[in-house]
Amino acid sequence: MKKRYGSLINGSWVKHKKTFDVRNPFDNSKILEVYDAEETGTLEAIESSANAFKEWKKTSAEERSYFLKTFHSLVLKNKKSIAQTITKESGKPLKESCIEVEYGASFIEWSANQCLRNCGKIFESPEQTKRMFYVKQPVGVVAAITPWNFPLAMVTRKVGAALAAGCCVILKPSELTPITALLLGELSIEAKFPSGIFNIINGKPDMIGDILSKNSTIKKITFTGSTKVGSLLMKNSSKTIKNISLELGGNAPFIVFSDADIDLAVQGLINAKFRNAGQTCISANRIFLNKEIYEIFLIKLKDRLKKMKIGSGLKDCDIGPLISKQALQKVENHIQDAIDKGAKLEFGGKLYKPNSLLFEPTVLTNIKQNMLVFKRENFGPIVPILIFDKDREAIEMANNTEYGLASYFFTSNPKRIWSLVDDLEYGMFGVNSGKISTYLNPFGGVKESGLGREGSLQTLEPFLETKFVNWNF
Ligand code: ADP
């Protein structure tokens, strides 16, 4: 691995004037330096992508699929080193990073396959003398802005689909975790991607985001991150009427009914809450327990939490560090706010080690709907618990949020399952499961959790335009 990484522009590594440090959140050690593309590098990347698009859009689906399949096998071949990089820059446990590499690679393979199925439609014409059809074509140059919590998978889900559709991509990864994306850049060179179809720039997010969202050469913005930044990008993109996809924040409910398998539900909560120390947009954020199973669930949950290992992601651990001091402050604020408003601290509640970003798994009960832990994503290992009696109460509380990304519920009643899918205002459901992520999932949310879906059968769709032809035959 290089000591200092430039931007990937037009198939080459380009240096700029300034650099910034990338640090390991476990011990704050410096991993390496990355060049800040600033305005000049960003404009250079846009020009390179626009030029590359002239040829890439003319390639056949077979060619694009071939490049992506080569890329896919290189990612899997380098699984170990990529996983270690993910852990070093994000802090997540190595076992989770290994799963992320496989999950992330699956989007490249899926896009390579779906690429071969891209097609328009020919209608049976209402008039004998006419032929009517539509074709699907790439939207053009795409800007992809990705978050730090899945430094590989959030990139491949966007970049795989965009390239498969025939678009060229400028990627701006998170400044906290750019190295994984840069390793993907190395592999794209090894896979002999045509120059300029995949450019990577790093630097100050507001400055680069401003240029990308206002530049008229960029036809599409695809973003995963906070609702605040998503809304800003949408506003800035409106002047040039860009196609935009947003995968934003969540506030996932996790509901356990009295007829649920309690051990399965506890395991589901461990999966849905503690992956990446609770720092995912689909993390369970509010836990609703039926009054009949509340006590037993709490006992079993605490038993599991006592056994969880906290520490360096590179060692055998279940919970790594939070990503930054700001993340830690948010977690501490949420806990303090809840306690000030009457919550009871049942487990954890403090730093695991002084002067670190390692936080104990924390359980709070007696949660009220006016507390920050109820209203906002805590993005940390906090389990805020509420009790309910009737189904209707749980549904109303679960829907009492402006977000609508993921939700989870545990019950053995099939009729209840159908009515919950109807009544809960969310884009994705884990039913008797704390895991929902797969390339088959049309990933995305309703309400203020975003616009559009990524992955699944329609994975190319956000990167395609439709052209209709009414032909007088
Ligand atoms: P999170 O809180 O999950 O880090 P952010 O929305 O802050 O979410 O970050 C997600 C991505 O958005 C990152 O790549 C980050 O660099 C980028 N980003 C942050 N602020 C802006 C901005 N003003 N314009 C464009 N991108 C931004």
Which percent range fits the helix content? 25-40%
Number of strands: 23
The gross shape turns out to be globular
Strand portion, in percent? 15-25%
Bound compounds, each kind once, are: adenosine-5'-diphosphate
Based on CA atoms alone, the radius of gyration comes out at 23 Å
Q: Find the CATH superfamily of the largest domain.
A: Aldehyde Dehydrogenase, Chain A, domain 1
CATH class of the largest domain: Alpha Beta
Give the count of structural domains: 2
* Biggest sheet statistics: 7 strands, mixed
Q: What is the second-level CATH architecture of the largest domain?
A: 3-Layer(aba) Sandwich
Explain what the structure shows:
The structure is a single chain. It contains 14 helices and 23 strands. The relative contact order is 0.14. It is α/β, with parallel strands linked by helices and 473 residues long. It has helices at residues 38-56, 61-77, 79-90, 94-115, 153-165, 178-190, 205-214, 227-237, 262-274, 294-306, 325-340, 372-375, 391-399, 414-423; strands at residues 4-5, 7-9, 12-14, 19-23, 30-35, 121-123, 130-138, 141-145, 168-172, 198-200, 218-224, 243-247, 252-256, 284-290, 344-347, 362-365, 382-388, 403-404, 406-410, 428-431, 446-447, 450-451, 464-472. Helix 3 (79-90) runs antiparallel to helix 6. The mean pLDDT is 97. Helices cover 38% and strands 23% of the residues. Strand 4 (19-23) and strand 5 (30-35) form a beta hairpin. The strands form 6 sheets. The protein has a 7-stranded mixed beta sheet with strand order 15-16-17-14-13-19-20, sandwiched between helices. Strands 10-9-8-11-12-22 form a 6-stranded mixed beta sheet, with helices on both faces. It folds into 2 domains: 4-249 and 448-472, Aldehyde Dehydrogenase, Chain A, domain 1 (3-Layer(aba) Sandwich), CATH 3.40.605; 252-402 and 406-438, Aldehyde Dehydrogenase, Chain A, domain 2, CATH 3.40.309.10. It is globular and about 70 Å long. Adenosine-5'-diphosphate is lined by residues 145-148, 172, 174-175, 205-206, 209, 225-226, 229, 232-233. Residues 145-148, 172, 174-175, 205-206, 209, 225-226, 229, 232-233 line the site of adenosine-5'-diphosphate.
